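Obj.: predict assembly geometry.
Materials: sequence records (below).
Method: joint structure prediction, all chains together.
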Amino acid sequence: MSGELLSHSIDSVRDDLLRKRFSAVEFTRKALETAERENPKTNAYLMFSAERALAAAERVDEKIAAGDDPGPLGGVPVAVKDVILTKGVRTTCASKLLADYIPPYDATAVERIEAAGGVIIGKTNCDEFAMGSSNENSAFGPVRNPIAPDRVPGGSSGGSAAVVAQGTAVVSLGSDTGGSIRQPASFCGITGVTPTYGRVSRYGLVAFASSLDHIGPFARTVKDAATVLEVIAGRDPLDSTSAEAPVPNFAAHMNGDVRGMKIGVPTEYMKHGTGETAELINKAIGSLRQLGCEVRDISLPATDYAVATYYIIATAEASSNLARYDGVRYTFRSQNADTLSAMYQKTRDEGFGAEVKRRIMLGTYVLSHGYYDAYYLKAQKVRALIARDFTNAFRIVDAVIAPVSPFPAFRLGEKINDPMEMYLSDIYTITGSLAGIPCMSVPCGNTSEGLPVGLQILCDHFDELKMFRLASAFERR
Amino acid sequence: MKITEKEVRYVANLANLALTEEEVERMVHDLSSILKHMDRIAEIDTEDVAPMAQVLYEAGETATLRPDIERAPLGNESALANAPLAGSGCFKVPKVIER
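Observations (raw structure tokens):
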């Protein structure tokens, strides 16, 4: 039996199942065995969900035996970031505070994956509460990049990127608040998609910054990523910010010609560009020209204020969202407190890691009396300017392209002691997050050291189809 | 902006965090360096710009309303299942009122 997950796509799993080369249960067992065996190399999985996976696989086999369609993800092994709730399967947010938390319900995205025949084989490591750009902020140890084990896989969805790159899952779900899907996809040499804000329900995604949080897919091909997005996208009554917008059949319509497509390159993003990342992005621009795209310079003037704006808004929202972890409802309670208020305070100090505490402090500060107007309200206004920059850009271009990260995967420990430097590395991804537009990372080559670099493609709200069309043409270049 | 040790303690109290002495010291250093960067947003002109609290898209006025249909609730037992301490169908906490 062909059990090498790395060689499989969603379509190949489906073909092999329908041709009875193997059953979904056999394939799932093999996937679990491979993932468990390979995991010590990366620490990408925190938890395997064998029972649930085999039950899902049995349902797929029953459908096939009955001559029914097993669904667009029929029998496909899927990994899910551990900030997305899975009923009955421990969900920790990579935090000591939720180390024993067993969700009483499923996230809508998880429900839709299984309804489409997907087999969830495990939960992946990440930065605690999705706060970080290197996956080093996990209470359960960092993830190693499968391409270069002395380097980070990126973050915060480092585990979900690593399992797809390593071949211990076919596709995975991550979450992106300021780049947490695109940056690890770029560091691990795979495709990662942050859909339009509201495209995918956030129900069951543990809240970090509600106006910025997205769920999105990782895959080894643009087509697989598009297929997963199509499955999880669409209005959900349980998330009032999820959009009514119709979901196109992405995979069926993404192979069109991109000749004449107008592409903007923001001058603000390229001015710091040095080294091999910039060279690879320039090479990608050349390829897009060869495909017949019209590439031109554009300006996104508010870019210089994006990091400050993002870290004010995201931490403000986080400080409010994380107030719920008070030692009463969610598993962990400090045993070193006698009074109620000491119990709250010690539970939070003992349960949260350093980066989460830093962000709660920052968010509380920018919302506090005397600073609200100068920081939080001002940042919301600058956010409007950043969004307006993109609105203006999409009047003259179909898509914007940019680097994902200023540099490829860095070494474990290299940046962890300087939080501001780590935040600045998010410069190219947070602008799209603040505007709420769809954006993705697609591999565009490797550095001389063999480290992958991603090209970022950004399109207007709900224009994922155009984004996939461009990514798919670039992938086939 | 440079944040003082006193402000760090004040904010930690607002955030219900019992920081250790070492954490307070580290926080003074880290938050000062981050806020110094954040202060740059004062430079950009936002006169007449409405604050953006949420990503907006075209939708009907009642798009966020769901039909008023009963749904099974989570249930007492499931809701309490993750509590560190529960009993008699309630969350248990340390004594609030001292005798």
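Conclusions so far: Strands of chain B lie at 86-87, 90-91.
To do: check interface contacts against the pulldown list.
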